[in-house]
Write a structure and sequence with these properties.
By secondary structure, the protein is an alpha+beta fold. Helix content is 46%, strand content 15%.
């Protein structure tokens, strides 16, 4: 894996996540914050976490106990909350067969936050099938090393077998986009040097 900036103690552009350190319910960070562990950073103003649906009542009690306010329900299953420090939190409550493994075997960010492992993040995004999710998959696969790719292939092959061929196509697209981005970065860097040399 060749990650982007590791998930730290803040949502990019957002508040500190200290409120979540005391949770006893197993969870993993998903959404835009999770993707920053596996690809270049994408700014986001909120936080998404995933839990197993059987743990929902326990988590709700914990959130209410820390002073969080429930603000609504998610169409995909789950709930939205405002934490005491002002952070908007979406709780995805999953019945997926991989969800328990994902929350019990998280990848740890540089600051120790539990982040959904890449194979399950890709699986979740492939299952969702939205254009933005598939773009994220392409980018993450382009930044993953071979060992990580093998784990992703195994997870997708097990849980979303019909998407196995699409996975390889997405990887190629991501690699092409990465190469183009690197070329543009080199061109910009060369232009900056030329401008400085001409002064």
């Amino acid at each position: 894996m060749t990650p982007g900036d590791s998930t730290g103690d803040t949502v990019p552009g957002g508040p500190v996540l200290d409120d979540l350190r005391g949770l006893g319910t197993p969870f993993v960070i998903v959404g835009g914050v999770a993707t920053t562990l596996y690809m270049p950073q994408r700014l986001t103003q909120d936080l998404d976490i995933l839990i197993v649906v059987a743990d929902a009542a326990r988590l709700h009690r914990e959130l209410e106990g820390m002073g969080a306010t429930r603000t609504g329900d998610l169409s995909v299953g789950g709930s939205s909350w405002d934490l005491p420090d002002g952070l908007a939190l979406d709780v995805l409550e999953s019945t997926a067969p991989w969800a328990r493994a994902a929350v019990e075997q998280p990848t740890r960010s540089g600051e120790g936050w539990p982040v959904i492992p890449l194979p399950y993040l890709v699986t979740m995004k492939v299952e969702a099938g939205r254009e933005r999710d598939l773009r994220d998959v392409a980018t993450m696969l382009a930044h993953a090393d071979e060992a990580a790719l093998e784990d992703v292939r195994a997870a997708v092959g097990r849980y979303v077998p019909d998407a196995a061929e699409d996975l390889e196509s997405l990887r190629v697209i991501g690699q092409l986009e990465r190469q183009e981005q690197e070329r543009q970065d080199r061109d910009r860097a060369g232009g900056d040097r030329s401008d400085r040399g001409g002064r």
